[in-house]
Amino acid sequence: MQSGILTHRGYRPLAVLILASFTVNLGFSALSPLFPYIILAVKGLLRELPELTTETLSAHKGAVELGLLAAVFMAARAPTAGIVGFLSDATGKKLVIAMGMALYLASSLGFLASNNLVLFMLFRGLQGAASAMVWPVAEAYLAEITPRWSRGKAISAYTSSMLIAQMLGPSVGVAVYKLYATLFNPADVLTALKAPIAFLAAMCSISLLTVLLLPPLEKSREAGRAKTGLRRVFRELGRMPGSAARSLKVIYGSGLVNGIAMGILNTAAITYIIEVIVKDPLYLGIFFSTFFLAALPSTLLAGYLSDRIRRRKPLVLAGYTLGNAVFLLIPFIKSYTVLLVGGAFLSLIFGLSTPTMRALQADLTPRGVRGSVFGLQQLVFNAGTLIGALAGGYLVKEYAESTMTLLGHELTGYVVPFWIAGVLGLLTTAFFALYVEE
């Protein structure tokens, strides 16, 4: 198993994880274009199908709730990520991944049965815990079974399965919603908007069954000699060369700040698109599908390039610099066509850097504690996203209806959250450039 994905034994776990990732992400991405509208309907701000609404949707009035739901997700995900990393190193990664998939299924069934924000927050938190139990542990599993210069290709293939699902899912979700509204009572707005949740539950069931086929990892002799835990992680970091330990610390700090930026951006972007650019879920689904389609070729290329040139840092820097610069330009977009082009470009460049960053972190981390280190990275990133989600909801609510003048040009108040997110991202990119070494 430890010989990597180049052997027959190594292909099976990679194939299982790719299939499980594709299935569950297809379900979640099917819900993504409809989720903001569900919140607006629950709040009473949307009383008819959004595509039939003649007035502007005041999406910013639901920004606080959207931020709270994202914060609840991260509030559950962050501590769980820190714990399950240690747990996966000690008890086995397959068990933890399967438990996470089971929680995904339970949360989707809970969403399907709920019609109020309190229950939504409860099951959103359950999703956060499930997410922490699946994705960082699965990435650590892949890092354990792949040799160093095949690792980029393996993680790129795994990440690509998510992107393919996220590319197809929004269109599938909108199709399910449109089909329900056509065949059944279109006046029942909330039920129509929640129709893709049933599809999500079905996909979670399939993914859980798939994960059960995952071979358990053999514990390395090194892992068996030492007790897994936070103390061991710090001890291993202390044994590392100074540049490697410093690099991991900078990656942790960057993860926290980038999480804050992402939390702000997620809330601001969805409300801005619905309120200013387009309100029909069909076009939102097309945007999401285009966004993830653009990331697919660059994600596949990233693993090949980083393994081929045996350098990861330049690809990470290129993606982070260009991506965060684009954040500054988003509040100037008013055209749906420009939104599609800009979103595709943003997705393409982040697709180049994200799997490369994960492979770089795996390169820097000693075997036997990768689950713990990946879990801690998720902990700090999710903690930042929690802060950012709350801040994003507040910033959108406070500034969405305001205007400001800059160099003689009148700007919408949406520039505030977008520019804060972009500046934070550029600052962390500068620290990464200065202090992270391969």
Number of strands: 2
Approximate strand percentage: under 5%
Helix and strand run: HHHHHHHHHHHHHHEEH
Shape: globular
Q: Unreliable segments (pLDDT under 50, ≥5 consecutive)?
A: 1-8, 220-228
Oligomeric state of the chains? single chain
Q: What Rg, in angstroms, do the CA atoms define?
A: 21 Å
Summed up, the helix count is 15
pLDDT averaged over residues: 81
- Helix and strand content put the structural class at mainly alpha
Largest sheet composition: 2 strands, antiparallel
Distance between the termini: 26 Å
Output the strand order for the largest sheet. 1-2
- Share in helix: over 70%
Could you explain how this protein is built, in words?
- The protein is mainly alpha-helical.
- The protein is built from 15 helices and 2 strands.
- The protein has helices spanning 8-31, 35-42, 63-91, 93-113, 117-145, 148-183, 189-211, 221-225, 230-239, 242-277, 281-309, 313-327, 336-364, 370-399, 415-435; strands at residues 403-406, 409-412.
- It has a two-stranded antiparallel sheet.
- Strand 1 and strand 2 form a beta hairpin.
